[in-house]
Amino acid sequence: MVLLETFVDPQRFHGTVYKAANWLYVGNTKGFRRTRHGYTATAQSPKMVFIKPLQADVRTLLCQAMLQPPYHTGGSKMMLNAQQMQSLPSFFAEISDPRRVQGRRHRLAVVLAIVAGASLCGMRGYSAIADWAKSLGKNARQRFGCRFDKGHYIVPSESIIRNVLIRVDPVQLDRALQRWNETYAQEDESLAIDGKTMCNAIDDQGHQTHILSVVGHQSKTCYTQKKSVPCP
Known about the structure:
By secondary structure, the chain is an alpha+beta fold.
């Protein structure tokens, strides 16, 4: 641990105790509040932000492109804005749908857009992606182009997500992701390469599928992914 952070409601307190304890006031939040359906549409109550460095070189440490091993936690992720959510489905529109026409409840482009969005936000595995999809608010679901039924936007279930990812053409998927990255990616000083084994993703020969990803340290963007099955 190198830094502590806390929030103070300026309508009730002034942060006097934190200032006396040498905490640093760094500004206010934008005031958006988390709700059951995501976040409030308008700012309501900005909070004062105080930080307490626990090491003298905390600024230098946290600004490094590559953190030292003791501080490696979690995986790379990013936050999607409204424009990025709306644009994602269009990049997958030309991918061939491997599913039968009968029984399709969600457009392929929408399913792949949600999977890509969840992965960019740090979700790993079918269950995590499905839970992320369920947590999307009404506005986010609408931006992704989810199916509207009986007054609600419906997101694909875990079984649908799994079925699509196992059967979709990995080459077409990778090309679509690269086009999205070319549009939104930033320049990175360094890249991280990480491999994941996909649970329950088995090919016709019974081999488990592996995904290799390249992620930028500064932008937190996944530049490309390769799907492969190792030779026995």
